């Protein structure tokens, strides 16, 4: 046991627990000094669920740091997160009993929006950070060559899965009327 061991192998109580340790940068990674003080805590199911949702949201937005390297913070990191979000979007709208061709069309429409518009912004943003202004600007530039239904499904997906606020998604849906 030591610097290379996972924290789960070191702490005397099973997670979740509160730990106190010192984090150090070492060869591009974040490590701990192997001196750990732990405190047992317990959460109810509501708090556990909320913590899991917060963790997943941070993960989707690329906000979890596990190394000091900048490998996941550029456009490629955003593309990776967009791909994962698009897969979840397709899972969400699959419940509507659409054909595979229709599902692919919706995915491609939103993927094009992410590539052509959001990644071109300074600084570039991912699909999870879509705002009503982005949709309005993109639709204004593309004219009638866009499937509005794809954007409506995407806005509802963001709203219904808690990935965007109710107000923001309602503003998006209003732009799509």
How would you characterize the overall build of this protein?
The chain has 177 residues and is mostly helical. It has 2 domains: 7-60, no CATH class; 75-175. It is 53% helix and 9% strand. The protein has 7 helices and 4 strands; from the N terminus they run H-E-E-E-E-H-H-H-H-H-H. A hairpin with a 2-residue loop joins strand 2 and strand 3 (29-32). The mean pLDDT is 85.
Query: Strands of the largest sheet, in order across it?
Result: 1-4
H/E topology pattern? HEEEEHHHHHH
Helix amount: 40-55%
Q: Sheet with the most strands?
A: 2 strands, antiparallel
Give me the number of helical elements. Answer: 7
> Overall pLDDT, averaged?
85
Sequence stretches where pLDDT stays below 50 over 5 or more residues: none
Instruction: Give the tally of structural domains.
Output: 2
Tally of extended strands? 4
- Classify the beta-strand content into a percent band: 5-15%
Q: Distance between termini?
A: 60 Å
Q: Which of globular, elongated, flat, extended, rod-shaped describes the shape?
A: elongated
| Structural class determined from secondary elements | mainly alpha
Radius of gyration: 20 Å
List the helices and strands and how they pair.
Layout lengths: L6 H4 L6 E4 L2 E4 L2 E4 L4 E4 L4 H16 L14 H20 L5 H19 L13 H11 L5 H13 L5 H10 L2
Antiparallel strand pairs: 1-4, 2-3
């Amino acid at each position: 046991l030591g610097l290379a061991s996972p924290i789960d192998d070191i702490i005397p109580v099973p997670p979740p627990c509160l730990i106190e340790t010192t984090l150090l940068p070492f060869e591009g990674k974040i490590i701990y000094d192997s001196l750990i003080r732990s405190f047992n805590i317990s959460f109810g199911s509501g708090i556990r669920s909320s913590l899991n949702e917060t963790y997943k949201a941070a993960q989707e937005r690329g906000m979890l740091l596990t190394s000091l390297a900048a490998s996941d913070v550029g456009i490629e990191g955003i593309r990776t997160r967009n791909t994962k979000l698009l897969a979840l979007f397709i899972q969400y709208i699959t419940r509507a009993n659409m054909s595979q061709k229709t599902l692919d069309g919706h995915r491609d429409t939103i993927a094009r929006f992410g590539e052509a518009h959001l990644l071109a912004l300074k600084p570039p943003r991912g699909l999870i950070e879509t705002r009503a202004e982005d949709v309005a600007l993109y639709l204004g530039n593309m004219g009638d060559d866009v499937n509005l239904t794809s954007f409506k499904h995407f806005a509802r997906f963001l709203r219904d899965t808690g990935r965007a606020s109710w107000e923001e998604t309602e503003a998006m849906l209003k732009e799509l009327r």
